[in-house]
Amino acid sequence: MFLLKPLKPLKPLEPYVPETLSAYDLSLEDWQAWLKENGEQSFRAGQVFDWLYVKRVGSFEEMSNLSKALRDKLTSRFKFVSLKEIARQESKDGTVKFLFELSDNNAIETVIMKHDYGNSVCVTTQVGCRIGCTFCASTLGGLKRNLSSGEIVAQVVQAQRLLDATGERVSSIVIMGIGEPFENYEAMLKFLKLMNHEKGLNIGQRHITVSTSGIVPNIYKFADENMQINLAISIHAPNDELRSKLMPVNRRYPFAELVEACKYYLRTTGRRITFEYALMGGVNDAAEHAQELASVLKDMLPLAHVNLIPVNFVLERDFKRTERDDIFAFQRILEKQNIPATIRREHGSDIAAACGQLRAQHMESQ
């Protein structure tokens, strides 16, 4: 049997605190405190929030119900726009992918996806990724840094501004872009609360999904947050040996530990977990893999759901997509074992929509 040596748990990353905060880095409570400290009335915080998230203005100068002195003070203290559009790709299916430049010249991706039920925005939480999944473009070039909460927020605001032109709105958010959200936990949590705030974009918690590769300690932590945010786990294999080959994070947080953390989440929240499973031809898509996966998940019913993902082609990776008939066969095996399973609809197949691809192309061109 092929065995991989376990690795030590990942050393926690330092949160990224920009030298100059952006307007989106502050919660309503932060604004109230800052205004009070600077000799202003705290109710102005609600006005600032309204300008940022409801009217979605592009500068402090446009906040016309604030005094000129306060607008000047805000302009001198905070950055307003932290994202610069480098590239935009639009798919025939309506998917729009952005490549944004940050203030330190790093680049990130954000995607708008069109669904029958509304518009979903997929956001990035890190510049690069250190998880090292062998089938993913996001990890190419390694990890540069975490994003601030404001840099994550700004992605949704930029997407909403584009949708404003056609009278549409962001109806849901998926935190599945570049990076591991649970490695940038505090910034992610602040982002979630900002998105859900009734005075902000007011996106319901049940319309937000966060995906993790299995940072076990923070799955327990997230369970205890008592939120209604949807949780997805990138699983991609039904056992330790195969998962460790595909996802090195499994050597730090072994499969059995991940399964126990998932069961704790289910007991604590009573909410369903979606298990994401990218199908790779000849690697993890055999009938025995489906049977083994069903065996792992049966104790989590009825709160376990599998989302089967035909793997995206990545030039730098050597994986091929599972044949269509084999995808359906894998799904049928799960369903015969009473494991609900869906097949993810593809978005942006005619553009570089796979996570990290557009950024990888940009890095190569530099």
UniProtKB/TrEMBL annotation:
Q: Give the PROSITE patterns listed for this entry.
A: RADICAL_SAM
GO MF entries: 4 iron, 4 sulfur cluster binding; metal ion binding; rRNA (adenine(2503)-C2-)-methyltransferase activity; rRNA binding; tRNA (adenine(37)-C2)-methyltransferase activity; tRNA binding
Q: What does this protein do?
A: Specifically methylates position 2 of adenine 2503 in 23S rRNA and position 2 of adenine 37 in tRNAs.
Family stated for the protein in its record: Belongs to the radical SAM superfamily. RlmN family.
Q: Binding positions for S-adenosyl-L-methionine?
A: 179-180, 211, 234-236, 312
Where is this chain primarily localised? cytoplasm
Annotated gene: rlmN
Q: Write down the HAMAP family for this protein, in alphabetical order.
A: RNA_methyltr_RlmN
State which Enzyme Commission number(s) the record gives. Answer: 2.1.1.192
Q: Which residues form the signal peptide?
A: none
Q: What is this protein called?
A: Probable dual-specificity RNA methyltransferase RlmN
In the UniProt entry, which residues are flagged as the active site? Answer: 109 (proton acceptor), 355 (s-methylcysteine intermediate)
- What positions does the domain Radical SAM core occupy? 115-350
- Manner of cofactor binding, per the entry note: Binds 1 [4Fe-4S] cluster. The cluster is coordinated with 3 cysteines and an exchangeable S-adenosyl-L-methionine.
Q: Which GO terms describe its biological process?
A: rRNA base methylation; tRNA methylation
